């Protein structure tokens, strides 16, 4: 098997799953219970929070454990909008966000908020000038993904964060789910108030995540209950998942410098090989993109047909983001970039992880080239 769908999810580290199992068996008590078993679970939760904060360079009380990227994005966007609506009702995001952000904004529009969706250029990048023009005195929240989940384009979040440092009545949220461990992003003193990461995108257990909430930032909780996570996210903590995720977090950060260089080499190999396939159109920009994602259309072949043809050979890629893959329409992100609808319907996403090898990429390129030739013959 050659797995090249790591933007959808990654294979969990064996060590992270061992931690998950050990904590499940030995620390099953509810951390909120007042007896000694609960106290041991609470102590482990505290230690995990301290470790996560240290690894991310922030304070422990700025860590909110969530169930993943969707919850993190929803809590950041809706929680901030509700908490600060007395300041204004204008929100800014982009037209190419993940569904968990876009649909949160659409819900807020129905509740009376005014949302500006910034357009993107042919490289899927938003313009800082467009952002400046869209900004208003009543803008209370800006939310922009760091790395686009289908194309890999890096958005100018550092530049926008610098601008927003001088606008204290506006919060800045970054969806860092696809960027974490591939495109470094400092959180402390960065101008970023809220940042989402997801455990299963860096080899942790599914159903885990972290929302960074800068000290002093208010959030209206989306769940009512026992007031866990500093009264920002009620519900019994997923302690096994949290501990497994924090172990994966540490392992990934340790591997990150060499891992990024490795991903860059694989990306170069992929780009060179894809460019030699007739009728291949690469949508990921050459510069300013994460090294882990490359999006390409093979003209004349529908993306679903190609995905299944590769699967028959034991190779796994995707059509678009996993959360949108069952939507039969062409990718909204590619359409927003100006890609023709037919071509957008022929795109596949190839996403790598540190564990992928040059040999796997060579095999993939050979199989893809053969499949393209065969499918074009059939479709004539």
UniProtKB/TrEMBL annotation:
Domain annotation Aminotransferase class V: ranges: 2-363
Keywords noted in UniProt: Iron, Iron-sulfur, Metal-binding, Pyridoxal phosphate
GO molecular function: cysteine desulfurase activity; iron-sulfur cluster binding; metal ion binding
Record-linked Gene3D superfamilies: Aspartate Aminotransferase, domain 1, Type I PLP-dependent aspartate aminotransferase-like (Major domain)
InterPro entries: Aminotrans_V_dom, Cysteine_dSase, PyrdxlP-dep_Trfase, PyrdxlP-dep_Trfase_major, PyrdxlP-dep_Trfase_small
Cofactor requirements of the protein: pyridoxal 5'-phosphate
Family of this protein: Belongs to the class-V pyridoxal-phosphate-dependent aminotransferase family. NifS/IscS subfamily.
Name recorded for this polypeptide: Cysteine desulfurase family protein
Organism from which the protein derives: Sporolactobacillus sp. Y61
